[in-house]
Amino acid sequence: MDRIKKYLIDGEGESLDYKQEISSASKIAKTMVSFANLKGGVLLVGVRDNRSIAGIRSEDEKYMLELAASFYCKPEINLELEEHNIGGKIILECIVPEGEFKPYSAKGEDGKWWVHIRNKDKSLLASKIVVDVLKRQASNKGTLIKYGKNEEALLRYLEDNERITLQQFRKMVNISKWRASKIIVNLITAGVIINHTYEKPEFYTLV
Question: What domains, with CATH codes, occur in the chain?
Fold first, then answer.
């Protein structure tokens, strides 16, 4: 119970999301995969955005969560569900573990599978670079960095400037988008640079 109270005090964030109710399996799947692609997270169902307790009214929420995890998430996500009585109202704690087989994707209303990531309290569509980084991290293969002239140009630029985008980098060194993306994925995976996804286009900074 103390854990639940802490969740209500902390507010929504990178690893916590409130849902008053679950009305769409495809929509909640986006939040699930965004947690699984990061370090896991918790959904509190029956809680309003202002942190007040609405409570769940039936078993429908459990069914929708399990449906989303099984049929709208790829790979399937194994949830932990626990009910809590808060002032006579039942809320549902849904624990989404960090995924072992990243990247995780959610089936959209268009029938296509999309990778989502968590940024602050939002679940966002992942870029191609983010998807490639998740794949590389999941492969457990070390990243061998070859510091050629393009890598050196990127790092020198970031020593003098706060940030750079993919488009800026490829124009600066006059290479294809594919080659520029590969270099950035390598440097992110090696822990040399960080990707920031809360703006469009996403940008990169030194660690």
Answer: 2-125 (3.30.950.30), 136-206 (1.10.10.10)
